[in-house]
Amino acid sequence: ELKTYIASAKNIIDIVPKLPTKITPGQETKVPVKLKNRSRLNFEKIEVIATTDVPKISDPLQVALKPQEEIEKELVLMLDAGVNPGQKKITIAAYEGNELRGSFVAQVEILPKDRVEEERETKRGFLTAATTITRKNIGNVKSEQRIEATYNVFQRVFSSMTPSPEAESGKVVWKFTLQPGEKETILIESNYRPLLYGFIIIAIFTAIVIFSIERSVVVKKRIFKGKEVIEGVKEYKIFLLVRNGKKYPLNDVKVM
């Protein structure tokens, strides 16, 4: 009597990946995967996907498998850079529609990765500038950060900085720690308009003073040394120049 054996419909595709023991998050990891159809069924559309306890880490790989056929494909894994380091369980499964046809489970080590992104934006106006510096930790470990900017004492007088930095030899320095997923924003605002306004006020005041002097009564004197009248006594001549700078006549002016 001929005996017929039917493999379990839930485990009829063998999955043998060359999965690395360590994975660096934030970058692609190419994994060769061998797939073997152990049944006599013909699969026109099998979807192979890798999953773990973090969001989807690969795009589905679609293959067709004939009865007893064995093929090798490449699955590209991409873990988010912010995935916590440590041991993770990765499952590679083969589905026909919603039906599981085979699976592979393994433990891999997610490596720590220090990665920080920076964005700078500067907006300028008339004698003003506003610079925004943002750093975000998109890695999976905490990161010690240091930001430097060159600002001398004169520039700092006309600038406001949030948060307040430390001063080091003509520079301003911010030091902070970023946890995974955390960001820090620094705002530097410079305004030199008060300096211009001060120059304008001084110029106007100076012009008013000069104008007032030019429009007032000015007395100038000149002394000329003359001849010696008698022994030990010399003659001096004093000339007084009186100018009326006003727009109206002055009467009974006394020079004392």
Structure report:
By secondary structure, the protein is mainly beta. 11% of the residues lie in helices and 55% in strands. The chain has helices at 153-157, 193-214, and strands spanning 13-17, 22-23, 28-37, 43-51, 61-65, 70-78, 86-96, 99-110, 116-125, 128-137, 143-150, 159-162, 166-168, 171-178, 183-191, 217-230, 233-244. The strands form 5 sheets. It has a 5-stranded mixed β-sheet with strand order 2-8-7-4-5, with no helix packed on it. A 4-stranded antiparallel β-sheet has the order 9-10-15-12. Strands 1-3-6 form a 3-stranded antiparallel β-sheet, with no helix packed on it. The longest helix has 22 residues, at 193-214. It starts with 12 loop residues before the first strand and ends in a 12-residue tail after the last strand. The model is unreliable at 1-8 (pLDDT under 50).
Estimate the helix proportion, in percent.
Answer: 10-25%
Question: Approximately what portion of the residues adopt beta-strand conformation?
Answer: over 45%
Mean pLDDT: 86
Number of helices: 2
- Strand order within the widest sheet? 2-8-7-4-5
SSE pattern: EEEEEEEEEEEHEEEEHEE
Summing up helix and strand content along with how strands pair, one would put the structural category as mainly beta
The radius of gyration is 44 Å
Number of strands: 17
Molecular shape: rod-shaped
Largest sheet: 5 strands, mixed
Distance between the ends: 151 Å
Poorly predicted runs:
1-8
Multimeric status of the protein = single chain
